[in-house]
Design a protein that fits this description.
The chain is of the alpha+beta class and 220 residues long. It contains nine helices and six strands, in the order H-E-H-H-H-H-H-H-E-E-E-E-E-H-H. It has one domain: Nuclear Transport Factor 2, Chain: A (Roll).
Length: 220
């Protein structure tokens, strides 16, 4: 379930057909810097447009495109907060070294997952719906058009300086962070933090080997 949530959620970022529906945000009290930079929906749309430019430019080498997209997504997702939520109560029990290692692996795993599948979702039609802001939290509603079905996705964001960053994604009432938390908790209970980190490293190595074929296709 976590992988499906991740792929569909990031499909919004990498979609080639994007529709934005106007809607009035709820009354909110974000920082002045965040207000000046624009609302969360506006900021996500800006990232979408920047990534689309990368995908549509045939003159950009494949590896450079991947690096550019990676940087754009890193600037919009709060991987630290996502990782902490995914580890749940075991975050408090982990050492500083374990936390740092976990955040790094968690970030790389998400990146390796979506970067290997970006082109497969380049032609989906996406509608951005309502934007809701309450104090220091925001939600942006989106829908992926899959045939006659609208798949609802909600981005949850928090303000960081002059920007809004995604800290969780919910698709069809299933949270990305909670899905990972359930999976990781089971591993930690049985094998401890070292066992979890080891499994994450092994999975990352598998994903790193997988894109080799994709790289060849991208160059054609």
């Amino acid at each position: 379930m976590a992988l499906r949530i991740l792929i569909l959620a990031l499909a919004l970022i990498f979609s080639g057909n994007i529709l934005v529906e106007a809607s009035e945000p709820a009354q909110a009290a974000p920082s002045a810097e965040v207000v000046k930079a624009g609302g969360p929906k506006k900021q996500i749309a800006a990232v979408v447009n920047a990534i689309l430019e990368q995908l549509r430019d045939p003159d950009i080498p494949a590896q450079q495109r991947r690096n550019n997209i990676r940087e754009l997504v890193r600037g919009k997702f709060d991987f630290q907060t996502m990782a902490q939520g995914a580890l749940g109560r075991y975050w408090r029990k982990a050492s500083e070294t374990e936390r740092s290692h976990f955040v790094a692996l968690f970030t790389k795993l998400l990146e390796a997952t979506y970067l290997g599948r970006v082109k497969a979702y380049s032609n989906l039609e996406v509608v951005f719906g309502e934007e809701r802001i309450r104090k220091k939290r925001a939600e942006v509603e989106c829908f992926i058009k899959d045939g006659n079905t609208d798949i609802p996705i909600t981005y949850k964001l928090i303000p960081r300086g002059q920007t809004w960053l995604v800290y969780d994604v919910v698709i069809e009432n299933a949270s990305l962070v909670r899905s990972y938390r359930s999976s990781y908790a089971s591993i930690v209970r049985k094998q401890g933090m070292n066992g979890l980190l080891k499994q994450m490293e092994e999975k990352l190595n598998q994903l790193k080997k997988a894109p080799a074929t994709q790289h060849k296709k991208d160059k054609k």
